[in-house]
Amino acid sequence: MNVSTIGEFVGAFLILTGGVASVISVFGLLRLPDVYTRSHAATKSSTLAVLLTLSGAFIYFLFSQHFVSVRLLLGIVFVFLTAPVAGHLIVRAAYRSNVKLADISTEDELYEVLHKDKIKEDGTGQ
């Protein structure tokens, strides 16, 4: 085996791993109870899946055709920077729109931070 063949196998393995992570992400989206946990599954695992797939494609093309794809590198950077931020903004918009937490949620830690005035008026706070 030469270096080119090993690089192609590594690239194919990363692409396959990205596909498996994508399937796991879909199961998380289908099975989790509310928008907050679904968003967590969508942003974390699908970002990992896309990054693995793009990295695998980059490595595959690098070793098989000796081609450095700037588009793939920019795609990796773009997904790495924007997907978690977008997921955070979606969850923040859902929380500010008063989307209810799942019944199994035990505590809303953000409520005390955002509603300090309401807590003081009710007398339940300090």
Kindly describe this structure.
- The structure is a single chain.
- The protein is mostly helical and 126 residues long.
- It has one domain (3-101).
- The protein has five helices and no strands.
List the helices and strands and how they pair.
Blueprint: H1 3-31, H2 35-65, H3 70-96, H4 109-114, H5 116-122
Summarize this structure briefly.
This protein is mainly alpha-helical. The chain has helices spanning 3-31, 35-65, 70-96, 109-114, 116-122.
Give me some keywords for this one.
126 residues; mainly alpha; 5 helices; elongated
Q: What is the SS-derived class?
A: mainly alpha
Count of individual helical segments: 5
Query: Percent of residues in beta strands?
Result: under 5%
> What integer value in Å does the Rg equal?
21 Å
Estimate the mean pLDDT confidence.
Answer: 88
Order of helices and strands: HHHHH
Proportion in helices: over 70%
Number of domains: 1
Main sheet summary: none
Q: Flag low-confidence runs.
A: none
Calculate the terminal CA-CA distance, rounded to whole Å.
Answer: 70 Å
Shape: elongated
Strands, total number: 0
